[in-house]
Specification:
By secondary structure, the chain is mainly β. InterPro entries: Quinoprotein_ADH-like_sf, WD40/YVTN_repeat-like_dom_sf.
């Protein structure tokens, strides 16, 4: 525990560890874990180290590996939107560890709703996203002001279940089956009449989106209870309509177009 506390202080001084609500905790209240790396073939212990993972989920902690990085985060409730709107989830953290050197590369409180999802070189931390190797927030240009604002995606309505993805698309529940085109930053598209399961059953594989039945027995009333497979059908005429969600100033306007029908 002392070793983890000392390392954390050094990371804070170097700007690698961004402090959050956990800074108010007493040292004895820190969530210190022993991280162990094993050889996948022999099971031999390669290394182990104590690490302060406060804010990374506690008993709901999860891990994921990508491009040499080991991430620690929380598998949190699917019904925390009320707490999120009240700014009560700002303590939820991701810590990234270099799997070879065992060094912490970054650790940030990221104020996310559900289990984070790695997609290429970014992490979806609903409703936003950050860079995999730095934890820096991803941004995009505001369509009216032209200024850089945090990237966000929309999930209105009842929304149990976590987000899944292909290389270019997000899949999740938003009342029904929801699809967001990440490559073109375009959405929200809904496939109605059927609902995803309460955990994870929207699976992207081999150019298909597969959704095995997972709603039978639920109190949510939807007319279609079956398995399905969706395949991408390129649009003959690509439209430019999308739901753009952002916060902050809407002025001064750099570009504004009005559709009068």
């Amino acid at each position: 525990r002392d070793a983890a506390a000392n390392e954390k202080q050094q990371l804070i001084e170097k700007g690698i560890y961004e402090e959050g609500a956990e800074s108010k905790l007493k040292p004895a209240e820190a969530d210190v874990r022993i991280v162990v790396a094993l050889d996948a073939v022999t099971g031999e212990t390669l290394w182990k180290k104590p690490l302060d993972l406060t804010g990374c989920g506690g008993d709901k902690m999860g891990t994921a590996y990508a491009d040499g990085l080991l991430l620690f985060f929380g598998h949190f409730s699917n019904h925390d939107t009320g707490f999120f709107k009240k700014d009560e989830l700002t303590w939820r953290r991701i810590t990234a560890l270099d799997a070879k050197t065992r060094q912490v590369l970054w650790s940030r409180p990221l104020n996310y709703l559900r289990r984070p999802l790695i997609v290429g070189d970014k992490i979806i931390v609903e409703p936003r996203a950050c860079e995999l190797h730095t934890g820096a927030d991803l941004t995009r240009s505001h369509p009216i002001t032209g200024k850089q604002v945090p990237w966000e995606f929309l999930r209105p309505g009842h929304s149990c279940g976590v987000t899944s993805a292909s290389a270019d698309t997000l899949f999740y529940r938003s009342y029904w089956c929801a699809i967001y085109d990440v490559a073109n930053d375009k959405g929200l598209s809904l496939f109605g009449g059927i609902r995803p399961g309460c955990w994870l059953n929207m699976i992207s594989a081999n150019a298909l989106m597969l959704m095995p039945e997972a709603s039978s027995g639920c109190t949510c009333s939807f007319p279609l209870r079956c398995s399905l497979a969706l395949v991408n059908k390129p649009e003959k005429v690509t439209g430019n309509w999308t739901v753009f969600i952002t916060h902050g100033a809407m002025a001064p306007a750099r570009h504004l177009a009005v559709n009068f029908g």
